[in-house]
Design brief:
This protein is of the alpha/beta class. It contains eight helices and 13 strands. The strands form five sheets. Strands 6-7-5-10 form a four-stranded mixed β-sheet, with helices on one face. Strands 4-11-9 form a three-stranded antiparallel β-sheet, with helices on one face. Strands 1-13 form a two-stranded parallel sheet. 32% of the residues are buried. The chain binds S-adenosylmethionine (SAM).
């Protein structure tokens, strides 16, 4: 039977090495992709679109999703102030249209998961209808938000979906296993009756918010340049409470102060129907 001291030493060794597992693919492929590195000055922001534009774009799209689903939203609407209720029209008899159609009508494009155009890269994300203008918010990176000090050891083992923000906050965008259970449990914890604080449908094959597939965007290569970039977005307090149900992120701890962290993917150029989205996994903070 191993002594408590040797168990402790073994655990300490694993603990010290686990930070290198967050992005194992990046570590293994860095030398092959040096030309695609993206450099950001220390403490810098790396923003392609202004926060106000990101917020406007998300609110506009989420409002369209909410309005099209108004029949199902009556319990929530009845809890909101009259000024908010008056922004939404009384439901008719029409059925809720597919979220993709709402996205196309509102933003002029849709995206979805398909087998990647790159060899051995698994699933990727493609523009399926319309085209994305440069600077538009194309996608969101869903998942559980972990502050730097919060425990993510077990969720991180063999998990290629852990995204690291420039300030060290982590997002676990894995839609399977323990990561999925953690997301579901945090989401139920924060729900107040009909008022949902996040969208957990990205864990299924039919997300309510079709933008929430950003964790499947593959890395650019020397032949396929990046056409989207990641951008941190902190959800302001003024974000409409009835639209939070479409945000695909939830905090791991409910008692963290400050705004909810999200990450959006912004188009670096016009992206046309049929093109795969490629981001840059290799951001070096100098
Ligand atoms: C965040 S996931 C992206 C989704 C992934 N394609 C999938 O099907 O689950 C990151 C993983 O995708 C694969 N990947 C991403 N970009 C790639 C590329 N340019 N070439 C080969 N594999 C890639 C690697 O296996 C990496 O660990």
């Amino acid at each position: 039977m191993p002594s408590p001291g040797s168990v402790f030493r073994a655990l300490l060794t694993r603990w010290k090495s686990y930070r290198y597992r967050f992005v194992p693919w990046v570590a293994l492929n860095l030398d092959r992709n040096r030309r695609t590195l993206r450099h950001v000055p220390s403490g810098g922001t790396d923003k392609m679109a202004a926060d106000a534009d990101v917020c406007y774009s998300l609110v506009t799209f989420f409002r369209a999703l909410f309005t099209c689903d108004i029949t199902q939203q009556q319990a929530l609407l009845s809890l909101l102030p009259a000024s908010t209720r008056s922004m939404y029209t009384t439901p008719g008899d029409q059925a809720t249209p597919p979220a993709d159609d709402v996205m196309y009508g509102c933003l002029g494009f849709t995206i979805d998961r398909r087998p990647s155009s790159l060899d051995a890269a698994g699933t990727g994300v493609f523009v399926c209808r319309g085209s994305v203008p440069r600077g538009a918010v194309v996608s969101m990176y869903p998942g559980v938000i972990y502050q730097n000090h919060e425990p993510i050891f077990f969720q991180s083992i063999g998990n290629p979906f852990i995204f690291r923000c420039l300030d060290g906050i982590l997002i676990d965008g894995n839609d399977k296993g323990i990561s999925k259970s953690v997301y579901r449990s945090c989401s139920r914890r924060d729900q107040l009756g009909p008022l949902k604080m996040c969208d957990g449908s990205w864990l299924t094959s039919a997300p309510l918010n079709p933008m929430a597939v950003g964790q499947y965007v593959n890395n650019c290569s020397n032949d396929c340049a990046a056409n989207v970039c990641y951008q941190e977005f902190d959800v302001p307090d003024s974000f409409p409470v009835e639209l939070r149900q479409y945000i695909p992120n939830i905090r791991y701890s409910h008692d963290v102060e400050g705004p909810l962290r999200c990450v959006v993917l912004v188009a670096l150029r016009d992206i046309h129907c049929g093109e795969e989205l490629f981001s840059n996994y290799f951001t070096i903070v100098q």
